[in-house]
Automatic annotation (TrEMBL):
Protein name: DUF4233 domain-containing protein
Any single Pfam family the record assigns to this protein: DUF4233
Record-linked InterPro entries: DUF4233
Domain of life: Bacteria
Transmembrane regions listed in the UniProt entry: 7-28, 40-61, 73-100
Entry keyword set: Membrane, Transmembrane, Transmembrane helix
Entry keyword Transmembrane helix: yes
Residues of the signal peptide: none
Length: 101
């Protein structure tokens, strides 16, 4: 029997990808005004790492009930990285809390 769990987890991870890239643009816009040390390339590399991990997590999610695959654990790693991005842009703590809940 197919599980609805991968659809739910996958949709959350894909929504996080969109939010992460909007956060990169916001952080870059704010850092230009405040002259912070992060460049656009560094922000894009960080966002790309989170994006690749999220896509791999979606691919590795279990498809059937009772099946064990590493996608769920990798999804939690993506959640932790999203939470850690709050140290770059403080409002990401709130966004990460929304996705984790």
């Amino acid at each position: 029997m197919k599980s609805k769990y991968p659809v739910l987890c996958g949709s959350i991870l894909i929504c996080e990808l969109v939010v992460v890239y909007f956060a990169v643009l916001t952080t870059f816009g704010l850092s230009v005004k405040s002259a912070q040390t992060l460049t656009l390339a560094q922000l894009l590399i960080g966002a790309s790492v989170i994006a690749v991990l999220a896509i791999v997590a979606v691919i590795l999610l279990p498809r059937r009930i009772g099946e064990r695959r590493p996608g769920v654990i990798l999804g939690w790693v993506v959640q932790v990285l999203l939470l850690a991005s709050g140290f770059v842009l403080t409002s990401m703590f709130f966004v990460a809390a929304l996705f984790i809940a």
